[in-house]
Amino acid sequence: MNAADRPPSSNFIRQIVEQDLAAGKHRAVVTRFPPEPNGYLHIGHAKSICLNFGLARDFGGVCHLRFDDTNPAKEEVEFVQAIERDVRWLGFDWGDRRFHASDYFEQLYDFACHLIRTGKAYVCSLSAEDTRAYRGTLTEPGRDSPYRTRTADENLDLFTRMRAGEFADGAHVLRARIDMASPNLNLRDPVLYRIKHAPHPITGNAWCVYPMYDYAHCVSDALEGITHSLCTLEFEDHRALYDWILDQLPVPCHPRQIEFSRLNLSYTVMSKRRLHELVTGRHVNGWDDPRLPTLSGLRRRGVPAAAIRDFCERVGVTRKENVIDLVQLETCTREALEQSAPRALAVLRPLKVVIENYPAGQVEWLDAPNHPQRPELGSRQLPFGRELYIERDDFMLDPPKGFHRLAPGREVRLRFAYFIRCEQVVTDPVSGEVTQLICSYDPATRGGNAPDGRKVKGTLHWVDAAHAVTAEVRLYDRLFSVPDPAGQDDYLSLLNPQSLQVLQDCRLEPSLAQGGEARQFERLGYFAPDPDSRPGAPVWNRTVSLRDTWAKVAARG
Ligand code: ATP
Ligand code: MG
After folding, report:
1. Residues 5-30 pLDDT 10s
2. CATH 2.40.240.10 given to domain 272-342+471-556
3. Which of 18, 36, 154, 472 is catalytic?
């Protein structure tokens, strides 16, 4: 069965939704994906997207896309556009249900006034430093702010003037009046609003007070009629605040917050702060660098959206913290591409071969199927002539035992073509480097079999020199040299210096001149055309090798 067709497996959130629907709690499921537009989406976000949109799809509900744009200083339109592109590319559609927390700024403000009037919020004028000191610690209770006893009228007056722009950043905040002795620090009179004289990408200069995430998020959920508000485990301790705020307000519904564990991936970093550092510090080439775990990077690398959905499905949804091995993503990628990618011949490190007994100027067009298991993908014609390229690695002057490829005097099969024998080796007189092989071919072996039944041990890929397209190919390896770079202070020193290898002089079969779709370069891996390609100068990225080369390393070591 194709991975994409596999029915979704159950998980604890799915079970809660099923029970709620069976109990008649909701008419339909409404979920949301709430990114903060302060960076590009990564594969961790994909887990949340697949979960939220997947539940809506499978239970006939809807999923909203909501930009959590409560922090104007850090948010940019570029990020909004990138997020929309990435969610669509992953295969999900929010229809006309695209919202912003800023859509609710007026309502959020009114609710804040409601909290003030009911004695549940007050304006506090402690400095940031004093606020911290009054807050207490995990082991010590906090102390009440001296401003906690301001009257509702006083608070309303101050809050109105905060909005009107009478005060500088940091002069006052609006805080919930809950319990400074609560063992849960999130309930020690958390800040609901702060003053920030900064223009907002959508509301412009309309506001100089902005709601905090914890306040805006639960109210936005309630206003949108969200039934299940799914978030990552670090918000578990915020749930009490989520519920407290909604309990104080005349909101239309009270969504249920459910936490699940984040997706972590080995050999990479996923926090937006670190991704920002990598991009702005030019340690990688932009947000869509194919070495990054961003969705735009994975897309550019050639990872199909179906592989990412399959990966998220296989990783599952639990409350257990874990780090997923990058190999699992590579496996999903390989499985998706094995099905979909047509085959092609390409030589990454070319070594010239001259077939001495092949007529100069003659060209034969040999039939090559595009996919060994999928005849419906048809075939193409490969040119074959007197001068060819083979992979440098496929020849050894003095081969060790077990090397079944080409060597002096040896015969091998060229894929879809003929048997050739190495008759003579041309070397550079100075460096001793092999520069060319003089070979002979057996015309009776056209198609790759000898009528006399003789066998050869190796089959090599090759490209006809006269028709070859010269290309740049970029090979990628893990971005970091250690499995857990995020856990290290000086993580930038752990970047893998070999994470990008650029090969300038690769030779591709002529059908690859136009770029186009992802391909399997036979024996080399899966490759996708890069947007840097120019007419006559294609650039291809290796998405993933054919086998898990790291497993081999581990087995040897
Ligand atoms: P930061 O990296 O700064 O902590 P964030 O990753 O939480 O930010 P948001 O834009 O707030 O960024 O994330 C949007 C949604 O995606 C949130 O609901 C969040 O819980 C979810 N999400 C983010 N990272 C992961 C992850 N690694 N695994 C699963 N879900 C994630
Ligand atoms: Mg967040």
Report:
1. 567 789 999 999 999 999 999 999 99
2. yes
3. 36
